Amino acid sequence: MSTIEQTTRLSDADRSDGQAVKVSVVIPCLNEAETIERCVRRALEVLSGQGYQAEVVVSDNGSEDGSADIAKAAGALVVHEPQRGYGSAYLAGFAASAGDYIVMADADLTYDFGDIPRFVAELDRGADLVMGDRMRGIQPGAMPWLHRYVGNPILSGILNLFFRVGIRDAHCGMRALRRDVLPRLDLRTTGMEFASEMVVRAGKARLAIAELPIDYHPREGESKLSSFRDGWRHLRFLLVHSPNWLFIFPGAVMAFVGALVALTVLTELPVLGREWDLHSMVAGALLMIVGTQVLALGLCAHAYGTYFMGEKDPWFDRMRDRFRLEHGLSLGAVVAGAGFAIAAVIVGIWVNRGFGALGEERLAVLAAALIIVGIQIFFSSFLLSIIGLRRRR
Q: Which value, to the nearest 10 degrees, does the dihedral of the CA atoms of residues 366, 372, 378, 380 take?
């Protein structure tokens, strides 16, 4: 559990001017003894001339080099968060802060605390979340080429593709937000993916997001970032929070391609100058089955997100209002029934030939695939209905 070691702020009732804290600068800290004092003093210096009450909160994440004591001596409120992680540190800092606005910045001097008033001004203009954009202000040696040209552009591009937030630099560590949007964001992650989570949830909540170009300076001290591990955590978060891209689209493509291949084989249409045969039919059937299963998983993921996590998805909401359990059961029964009908035809042919050799392998594969797909649809419909029992009418 987080504990506050020191607070330099006064309660609103004790202030001579009666002003509440407007801005809290929250700085996560893990073994930043070389830089934390300069960060705190610079932030306090910038805030002192702005005409509003402000504070600096340092969220110490288990430092062993005296960082917490240094921050305390420099005039910061220090909160101890024993659970390691970038997100854990920020969640503890948010809980300990008192400002109506929260400005976030790292403790390694990569960001200029002189930019704080610019972020506050954007919030004053009505923005709910203000993101820094480092990409046009990267100083020499400040960002490894792998992060600058590969990691950050790819992850930011995926985030924008999945969630349409229009942010150029989705992983900038300097940002600001209104305290009153925190309940809507419902931030939960404890690691580096916290940076992505904030942007994703802001986009889903339709918050007003602004972006400011800022400079990014070479860090001082040892970096805590693990490129591949933390990059994967960001990508994993984006995928699991986007069932359409993780399940629905891939599943639909597989099912469609599988059906197309099966139809091509059955009609003996030449493709690429040759006719496809049994092996292609097996591959098409496999794609149909796997695609249907992945689609079903995607719908279940949507249902879970909607009923248990408060997610909003207009597409899923429309499908939920239009289709009921009985629709899924009927579709599954029709597809499986078609498979059984084809199987009956094959049996009839076999009987007609005196139970001799059969040469209907392609029809047999199609029948098996349709039966499996129909059963998947039938029971997946029941599973969706069970998940939907939580729905509030």
A: -130
Kindly list the domain boundaries of the chain, sorted by start residue.
3-240, 243-390
**What is the full DSSP assignment across 110-178?**
-S-GGGHHHHHHHHHTT-SEEEEE-TT-BPTTSS-HIIIIIIHHHHHHHHHHHH----S-TT-S-EEEE
**CA 329, CA 331: separation in Å to the nearest integer?**
6
Q: What is the DSSP letter of 244?
A: I
Which pTM does this prediction carry? 0.79
Question: Measured between alpha carbons, how far is 120 from 135 in angstroms, rounded to an integer?
Answer: 21
Q: Which residues contact 156 (CB under 8 A, 6 or more apart)?
A: 167, 168, 169, 170, 171
Query: Exposed, middle or buried: residue 23 (CB in 10 Å: 0-12, 13-18, 19+)?
Result: buried
Only one residue has tokens 């059906």, namely: 259
Indicate the helix (H) or strand (E) that contains 315.
helix 314-322
Q: Rounded to an integer, what distance in angstroms lies between the CA atom of residue 189 and that of residue 300?
A: 22
**Strands laid side by side in the 209-213 sheet:** 3-6, 77-80, 53-60, 21-29, 101-104, 175-178, 129-133, 209-213
Q: What is the CATH number of domain 3-240?
A: 3.90.550.10
pLDDT tens track, the chain, 393 positions: 566 554 444 444 444 455 789 999 999 999 999 999 999 999 999 999 888 999 999 999 989 999 999 999 999 999 999 999 999 999 999 999 999 999 999 999 999 999 999 999 999 999 999 999 999 999 998 888 888 888 889 999 999 999 989 899 999 999 999 999 999 999 999 988 999 999 999 998 899 999 999 999 998 867 667 778 878 888 888 888 889 899 999 999 999 999 999 988 888 777 766 667 788 899 999 999 999 999 999 999 988 888 877 777 777 878 888 888 899 999 999 999 999 999 999 888 888 877 777 778 889 999 999 999 999 999 999 998 998 886 554
